[in-house]
C-alpha cells in the first residue's frame, strides 16, 4: 500500500487506521512523507504497527513521491490511497481476490463515495472494454482506489511522468492499458474527501491542459487526429449553468462528442459519451452550490 503525504496531519491518522484495519492483513503500508512541514511526521510516528514503513524525503512533489514509493515498494501488488481518504474495511481483500482470478487484469479500482464538502457515490466503469472507452476522455480508475500489479510497472518501465503532472494518474493508467486489462469492482471501496485544496480546485487550468493532451494522444492512437484541443475542451467541459447552456451543449457539442467516441471505440465509446453528456447536462441544470467539482472524475460506462 502506497500513501504519499504532504502536510496532512489532520487526516492521516484516520487514513492509516483504515488501512491497518483491513480484513486483508498481509500488507505493508509505505508512507512517503514528501517534506511535510506540519505535524504529519509526529502523527505518523505515534502509530506503532510493524506493517507501517515511513519513507521521508525532501519536498519534491507528488510525482516524485509516487515514483519513490514504486521504487521502495515490496510485494506483488501496489495499492494506492491518499492521506486524506478512508478505505472501506474489505477493499483490499476484494481486490486481491479479483486479481487472483483474472491474471490478465493489471489494475483495478472500485466505486467511491464523496464526503467532506460534497456527498454521493461515483460509479466507475466495470469491464475492460468499458475502461478502454473511458480512457479516451479521462481516467477510468479512481487513483486512490487502485491496486496495480507491481511487476507490470517495473517490467514495462511504467511510472508517474512529471511532464503529465496534475493528470499523472490518467497517463499512468493509459500506459498500463497497453500491457493488460483495467477494471473496477462494483462496490464502494473508498471514501474520497472533497475539499478546497485539491489539485482540481487550485490547478484547474494546468490540469485541464494536461488532460486534453492525454485525451488527444489517446484519440490519435485510435485513429482520431482531427479534433483540436479547443473543440475537445468544449465537448468535455460545460462550465456554464442554466437551461440555455444545457440546450446549446445538447444540440452543439454533445453530438460531436458522441460521434468522436463512436469512431474511436464503437458501441462502448458511444455509451461512454452518452453518459458524459448526461452528467454535463445534469450539472448545468443544477444550482451551482449543488454541482460537483468540475474536474471530479465522475462517470462510468456500462457494466456489461
TrEMBL record:
Tell me the SUPFAM superfamilies matching this sequence.
Nucleotide-diphospho-sugar transferases (SSF53448)
Key words, A-Z = Glycosyltransferase, Transferase
InterPro entries cross-referenced by the UniProt entry: Glyco_trans_2-like, Glycosyltransf_2, Nucleotide-diphossugar_trans
Q: Name one GO molecular function term.
A: glycosyltransferase activity
| Keyword set includes Transmembrane | no
Q: Name one Pfam family in it.
A: Glycos_transf_2
Q: Which PANTHER family match?
A: GLYCOSYLTRANSFERASE (PTHR43685), GLYCOSYLTRANSFERASE EPSE-RELATED (PTHR43685:SF5)
Q: Which family does it belong to?
A: Belongs to the glycosyltransferase 2 family.
Query: What is the protein name stated in its UniProt record?
Result: Glycosyltransferase 2-like domain-containing protein
Q: Which organism is it from?
A: Phytohabitans suffuscus
The upper taxonomy is: Bacteria, Bacillati, Actinomycetota, Actinomycetes, Micromonosporales
